[in-house]
Amino acid sequence: MDDLIRRLPKAELHLHIEGSLEPELMFELAGRNGIALPYNSVDDVKAAYQFTNLQSFLDIYYQAAAVLQTEQDFFDLTWAYLKRAAEDNVRHAEIFFDPQTHTARGIDFETVLEGITSALQAGERELGISSRLIMCFLRHLSAKEAMTTLQQALPHRQQIVAVGLDSSEVGHPPSKFREVFDEARRQGFLTVAHAGEEGPPEYIREALDLLHAARIDHGVRCMENADLVSRLRDEQIPLTVCPLSNVRLCVFERIEDHPLRRMLEAGLCVTVNSDDPAYFGGYIGENFAAVTRGLELSREQVLQLARNSFAAAFVDEKRKAELI
Ligand code: HPA
Ligand code: ZN
């Protein structure tokens, strides 16, 4: 089964590029940019990755992002992810980036975007991985700040397929960003949103009804509401599930408790993704392996997960046919 998982062509649809910053690269960039880290070694960094909830992770994750300064840094970060993804036979990747994490530190929006997109182009050319970029708004910041970020993105409309919503979920419902998402859709962006990771099923409903999300990121708490499950199944709204993330952030205690298999059996369009692989102990292949073993998935269920990832991708039918 491990061999099947590795060789299976797959699309990754929920990956925060800042969350692919491995401790080794963190040290390299800190050295290059003359930035002091609050850690003495790679082991020291890894020992700090003991999370109790989403916020305890975000605090460390935003701090680490400070080592990313130049276009080359963003290139190196993205290129490292793509090379690793190629080993898991990722054929297509839809990557989140958080411009506000960087612009708040005085880094230009264009520095971030150019570094990432030039690596994505190299990934297509040299690794055969096609990609799309999704710009996330930090939901702990104001809707006004999100609108400013949307305006910064408009000259680069062709390089960004969708907008999304991430960061601290509870207390920051999708409704807070309704006008920003209305404007984004008017400008031609697709929309997605993190919802139902730590937040209640109601946030998933808001993401669908108010933000017109084409996919829900995480969405695991939908299982608490039978009507919502029926709707997600009937409309085949894709859910980009991140099993190792959910365990590391204590959404579920053990992988054996994860609802992914029940979600598949309920007819939901579930995909498997790594979220922030440098922090959560595994890339997409390791996420597939963990649920396959922990939930005793059948070969057919594993194949279904990979098929779903292509069905849910923001590419046209012709490209989907080439990818599979
Ligand atoms: N949830 C919310 N925000 C995030 C996540 C996540 O899983 N990863 C990076 N930012
Ligand atoms: Zn995420």
Automatic annotation (TrEMBL):
The family database entries (Gene3D superfamilies) matched by this protein are listed as: Metal-dependent hydrolases
Gene Ontology CC: cytosol
| Gene Ontology terms, MF aspect | adenine deaminase activity; zinc ion binding
Q: Name one Pfam family in it.
A: A_deaminase
Residues with site note (Important for catalytic activity): H218
Q: Does the keyword Cell wall biogenesis/degradation apply?
A: no
Range of residues in the leader sequence: none
Q: Which HAMAP family match?
A: Adenine_deaminase
The name on file for this protein is Adenine deaminase
Look up and give the organism this protein is from: Maioricimonas rarisocia
